[in-house]
Amino acid sequence: MSEPTSAASHGATIELENLSKRYPGHPQPAVDDVSMEIRAGETVVFVGPSGCGKSTTLKMINRLIEPTGGRIRIDGEDVTGIDPVKLRRKVGYAIQSSGLFPHLTVAQNIALVPRMTGWPKGRIRERVEEMLDLVGLDAGEFHGRYPRQLSGGQQQRVGVARALAADPPVLLMDEPFGAVDPITRDHLQDELIRLQRELHKTIVFVTHDFDEAIRLGDRIAVLRERSRIAQFDTPQAILTHPADDFVSGFVGAGAALKRLNLTRVRDVEVRDYPTVTVDTPLPQVFGSLRGSGTGEILLLDGRRRPHKWLRRGDLVRARGSLARAGTPVHDTVGRDATLRDALEAVLTDAAGRVAVTGRRGEYLGVVDMETLMNSVHELLEADRLEAMEAEHDLVEARARQTRPDQEDPGGVTTA
Ligand code: ADP
Prior knowledge:
- Helices cover 39% and strands 21% of the residues.
- It is an alpha/beta fold.
- It has two domains: 14-252, P-loop containing nucleotide triphosphate hydrolases (Rossmann fold, 3-Layer(aba) Sandwich); 267-371, CBS-domain (Roll).
- It contains 15 helices and 17 strands.
- The chain is elongated, with a radius of gyration of 29 Å.
- The strands form four sheets. It has a six-stranded mixed β-sheet, with helices on both faces. A four-stranded antiparallel β-sheet has the order 2-1-4-5, covered by helices on one side.
- It has helices spanning 54-61, 84-90, 106-116, 121-134, 139-142, 152-164, 182-199, 210-216, 235-240, 245-251, 255-262, 282-291, 312-317, 339-348, 369-402, and strands at residues 14-21, 31-38, 43-47, 69-74, 77-78, 91-95, 170-174, 202-207, 219-224, 228-233, 275-277, 296-300, 306-311, 327-328, 332-334, 353-357, 363-368.
- Bound molecules: adenosine-5'-diphosphate.
């Protein structure tokens, strides 16, 4: 009956409309009136503290948990009432510790949903091979193994292969990499990014790890208690404009470091250092040295590229020979380097400064610890201000919505 189409199935939109879940005997709902739209082909990550309702929300999408209120639409179709078996064809599901059946082989595990939905045997066999190949496992080697004969990372790969076997447009992933070691986790995250580039599924991914969310999500929904949406936006927007204290708290003390990653040297003011070139007359060089607040100047070569750092003592010891005096410049950073790269260069430089260069290697300025610290403070301050302004605009806009008469100062009325 339900053979797969030959073309791979790409993502579907998911709409959650006023979705709620109240567990019997609990006064508070676990999920309270959640509405959101997830676009076809995007990866949305639900992130939030433990117990906030991420998993319950996710499991309502494939009705492993039945909602007590609201609707779910997949590609416009209301799936709140359809046969769950039919739903599983549309929605793949991967969980922590892979969730593989221990008494079934790898191949039998992967074949589960295609078999359940009545694919012909030959096609299932082909599909199992195809899936093992997709997740980077050798079909010949892994086909007949049992889950206990696999490493944690391999089990997780088989879990993903199983979730994708019936080629569903939607893939739900509930902390799938939560139980593997950090290195394997890194690999699995990279592989998921690679897979998604190829497959364009709609992925909803649950994690409590904000860094994982940033890495994987096209958009991140930061959830607070009862799965209420604190912010739903791109990683960049959440990092730079957290909606409120709850989100900032979740983004965490790493905000300054994350900002360093998002800002380039070209975006900040660099220090203008005193410079001389190799053919500057000596009296002028001494004059520059005397005028330099740092007691140091930068010697540029004939094409104005940073050549040597020069102190007065260096020049005296070299008996006034510019050719012999000074410390060669080892490292420079370009304008496209991130502030994190610049910080790394500053930290590894013996004197804590690094020259910034243009496209042809020409001198543009210098960054040191002080300029970096000032820049980061300014950036974080600007982020906060902008967030406050955005909040203010939002409040204003809401106020206008509730006073529509004030939108119409001309008093134009329609019949
Ligand atoms: P998260 O995935 O964010 O850690 P969950 O969705 O698992 O959160 O749980 C949300 C809330 O619902 C928690 O307070 C949890 O204790 C409660 N809960 C989860 N499953 C059940 C259940 N089967 N019966 C009663 N309460 C539950």
